[in-house]
Amino acid sequence: MRDIPRRVWLEISKSQLTHNYNAVASRVAPCEVMAVLKANSYGLGVLPIAETLKEAGAMRFGVAEPFEALQLLSLERPVHILSSILPEEIEPMIEAGITIPVTSLESARLIHHTAKKLRKFAIVHFKIDTGMGRLGIILEDAFDTIVQACALPDLICEGIFSHFPMAYDKESPVSRTQIKNFKTLVQQLNTRRIRFKYVHIANSDAINNFPESYQRPFNLVRTGINLHGAFDAHGKRSIEIHPAISLKTRLTAIRHMAAGSAIGYGQSYKLKEPTRVGTISAGYADGLPLSLSNQGHVIIRDKPCPIIGRVSMDYTTVSLAEVADAQIGDDVTCLGSTESNCITIESWAELKNTHPYEIICSIGNRVERRYVQ
Ligand SMILES: Cc1ncc(COP(=O)(O)O)c(C=O)c1O
Predict the structure, then answer these.
(1) Do the beta carbons of residue 124 and residue 104 sit within 8 Å?
(2) Which of 89, 170, 193, 305 holds its CA 20 to 30 A away from the CA of 97?
């Protein structure tokens, strides 16, 4: 079968990924940086991104679950599951040398028994729930649980970590209280001679908003969204990162339509005057939020073209009133920059009333990922 160029593609800039990694690494130095690449690297394609970040200097990688962890074995760097582990997943993860989270005494014992059976050691990090309310050892139980788990001989108790639910908010006391309680726990464990090689709590928000989250005793940070060139919707943006992705498609039709013509599903737009209407070959299946309907724009020949009518699954209609020279086949920038115009992930997030994470993770399956320098 002949290869045919794809209609919609996502350009992922390796040099911007590298820049973003370096920006984070130099901010938090001497802390080590774990690149968080869960959900297929936030939907962008895990292996090429992991390899680029490894070249940039990333020494370890974080994922959400075992399927994702196994995909990264070829990197020959530590891979951490950051969330939870199911009983039947323990054996294959120990076999593969994946770093496993301990989320309860029961899970520590299961990991220990499995390691013993396999005649291997299991590398574990204790996951402490200091306020996220989702997973991990509840703070009040953490001291006793860890003391008991550290006595299990087949565990290499390498790390202890926690996670922030709202480190975007510098004013809220929540993150400071989490840091204080977590540090107290680490100190209490020290009095029992329990010390960890890695102590970590910071995500991207914390790196931007809470310097104490990457100072002693912390010596590792876990960052995802900043590496991908975006920020959380709220909070300070103190690291100078660059957008790393551009979503592009082609102009597939140009039609001259009369005043009064209705456009698209629901006929939500009626032309006020005779207009050159363009149809671009991308829709919500490719990741364009439905909420761009009659609100957003795309860029053609470096000019903004307002979206008119409702975004549909595969196509979106735009006004070409300001781009007299537009031609069928022209490249269309849906997200990203051209010479003098720019559409940001954050602007889409605002229109969709969501955060940039959901925008990045919603780029459709049929969109070709192209890794460019
Ligand atoms: C446990 C954990 N650590 C770190 C991260 C990275 O977060 P961010 O992408 O905000 O840097 C995540 C992602 O949600 C996470 O679940």
Answers:
(1) no
(2) 193
- β-pairing, 9-13 vs 297-300, is unpaired
Where are any strands of DSSP class E within the chain?
9-13, 32-36, 60-63, 79-81, 100-102, 122-129, 137-138, 155-162, 198-200, 220-223, 245-257, 262-263, 269-270, 275-280, 297-300, 303-306, 316-319, 331-337, 342-343, 368-372
Residue intervals in the chain for CATH 3.20.20.10: 14-223
Q: Confirm whether 38 is a catalytic residue.
A: yes
Nearest-atom index, ligand 1, CA of 207: 11
Query: 240 Cβ partners below 8 Å, 6+ apart?
Result: 23
3-state SS class at 251: strand
Low-confidence ranges of the chain (pLDDT < 50): none
Task: Specify which residues 126 forms β-bridges with.
Answer: 102, 160
Q: What's the pLDDT at 216?
A: 96
3-state secondary structure of 350: helix
The whole-angstrom separation of Cα 53 and Cα 25 is 11
Please pick, among 38, 54, 127, 352, the residue that the annotation labels catalytic: 38
Q: Please give the single-letter amino acid code of residue 183.
A: K
Active site residue 265: yes
pLDDT digits (tens, 9 = 90+) for 34-86: 999 999 999 999 999 999 999 999 999 999 999 999 999 999 999 999 999 99
**Are the beta carbons of 22 and 14 closer than 8 angstroms?**
no
For CATH 2.40.37.10, list the domain ranges present in the chain: 245-372
* Residue owning tokens 């990333």: 58
CB atoms within 10 A of CB 249: 24
What pLDDT, in 10s, does the model give residues 271-289?
A: 999 999 999 999 999 999 9
Which of 63, 203, 231 most suits a substitution to test ligand 1, by most atoms within 8 Å of the C-beta?
A: 203
194 lines ligand 1 (CB under 6 A): no
355 within ligand 1 shell (Cβ under 6 A): no
CATH class for the region spanning 245-372: mainly beta
CATH topology of domain 14-223: TIM Barrel (3.20.20)
Return the DSSP state at 211.
G
Which atom of ligand 1 sits closest to the CA of residue 42?
A: 9
Residue 1 pLDDT: 78
